[in-house]
Amino acid sequence: MDSSFQDIYARRIETGGLQPDPAQQALIPGFQRMLDALAAPPPRARGLFSRRAAPEPVRGLYLWGGVGRGKSMLMDMFFEAAPLAGKRRVHFHAFMQEIHAGIARARKTGTDDAIRPVAEEIADGLRLLCFDEMQITDITDAMIVGRLFEKLFEAGVTVVATSNRPPSDLYKNGLNRQLFTPFIALLEERLEIHELAAERDYRQDRIGGTQVYFHPADKAARMAVDSLWEELTGGGGAPLTLRIKGRDVVLAQAASGVARCDFWDLCGRPLGAADYLAVAEAVRVLMLENVPLLSSENYNEARRFVTLVDALYEARRQVVISAAAPPEDLYVEGEGLFEFERTASRLREMQSEGWGTGD
Fold this sequence. Notes:
Layout: H1 5-14, H2 22-25, H3 28-39, E1 60-64, H4 71-81, E2 87-91, H5 92-108, H6 115-123, E3 128-132, H7 139-154, E4 158-163, H8 181-190, E5 191-195, H9 202-207, E6 213-214, H10 219-233, E7 238-244, E8 247-255, E9 258-262, H11 263-267, H12 273-282, E10 285-291, H13 299-314, E11 318-323, H14 327-330, H15 337-349
Parallel strand pairs: 1-4, 1-5, 2-3, 3-4, 6-11, 9-10, 10-11
Antiparallel strand pairs: 7-8, 8-9
């Protein structure tokens, strides 16, 4: 490994990408421990899921805390520095959609244990699995994750996860929660649990008071959105696919809880409220580019835009938008004009400095 995690963190501060934070710095030894351990070759395993033969995974990390404290940023720095090819970083919501699809395929083969082949496929050649935004709100997910993670740990996979909640609060007040509590115990046994108790919401600091609505959607707007993307994520990013009721919703770029996509990606397709609620659940900041003038000629797209804004508003997500006109001038004629007045008002409110993300 060329640099220590301390060096990587210090360089981010020197280049202006970070501000020193004692709560973040307190986690550096834990990340360094994992980097050192992962740098060593694992013992040769004789069987993927044999307890006696599979390599013991490096003890992982569960990092929780409030929105914008730097959890995803630290995990992404660690992921990039991890000295191995067999690693994967995925949003937890997208991962569980993948698991459901895999289980459905396995059941078609008549297997009695549909989770096992899915876990085997995921763990094949994998040593490090990083989850962003772990949360359990669905009873189906709650009933799956325990056995799934058991298989991953048995296969020698090291797990790192971020969440807004401690393990003890996952699936809180959920149906049949007593069946879920063994998974909490498994996390507490296999992962180091740390709260990132930074006092400041750095994401809010970076976006609060900053222009977040740009019109017209020209080259200058594109450059402004590029700058905010770099500020919020450090650049990079990868597509995030959300599997919702049998269809894929793809956000073109996603990193550190921020997603970026074109208007037509989300509003030019036949998507509905469930899809937009899933988007609002999956991200903290949505950058939506190239919103056109809306009218009766593109009424379906306008209606979807209204539904998307409603979902983001109710979830108190932050938005960055480039559009053909100010909110009040986007939709000036045709059916739905009255409803769009509320949307324009919400877009104005979501530009205010006090607007922030919820849990």
